[in-house]
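Following the same procedure, backbone shapes were mapped to integers, yielding the entry below.
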Amino acid sequence: MIQSVVPENGGGMTVSKYLCRAFPLLPGFCVRNALKKKDIRINGKRIGTDETVWAGDEIAVYTEKKYEPKPLKVVFEDEALLAFIKPSGLPVDVDQDGIGEDTVFIRLQKTYGEAYLVHRLDTGTEGVMLAAKSRDMEKKLLDAFKNHKVIKIYRALAIGKMPKRTQSLTAYLTKKSTAARVFVEDVNAPGSKIIETAYTVLDEKTVSDVLFSDLEVRIFTGRTHQIRAHLAHIGRPLLGDDKYGNRAVNKKLSQTDVCLKCVKMMISGAEGLSKYEGVWFEGEAGQWKIMQ
């Protein structure tokens, strides 16, 4: 069973829409089946139709245990630091309306009680993340990320042939509060911040008359949507990225997830963290299904 109490700003939508936002990895068919079987309760009352929920409503859904949120896969742990894998589609924290019963933060809390997030990954991005198990480690890790003392290596699948086999790109990124996206330009604009993104082509393959480039990417600055926006800026958007990418290709290949994952990271030269110098925190790189 999964449960949720609708937050103050989370009401006024159908229960199926609410559950989709509260439990983003819960398959849609589970909700549909639960409605058919009257296995959803709102404030203790069984429902069989897609009713509207309101702030304060208590929702319970009876479903198979395999569909309930699971602990995060941990790849490194000691007394102070955690490295784990964030699944694609799982948000780091609640959304703008406070909705989110299944997030990275909540999964960490359920397992460790006290754990502190020190950086983010986009909801659609899979990969390695770090968390602190104490306030002292939180401060050290926050400083390490702020001062660019964490090496982050990604895999990305870009549409098109890259300009070079290996290249380091520099541009300027602007984040506007009125837009749900960022903007990249070649010249420094008011309010923009410099971004540095380097890539190496690992493989190329043509699928359905579209050439794809499998890339290893390293970012030297950690800005919102940096890899997605920077590669789109040079005309090589990521497969599955409808925000910055090629929607026609995404639709043609039925690709809804952004092909981007953080495969490993390492702390290097950070004050107070010499214990972890040279240690790679790694997930599984794997191969993109479309490239197999």
Observations:
- The chain has a mean pLDDT of 95.
- Residues 11 and 53 are 6 Å apart (CA to CA).
- The longest strand covers residues 193-207.
- The radius of gyration is 21 Å.
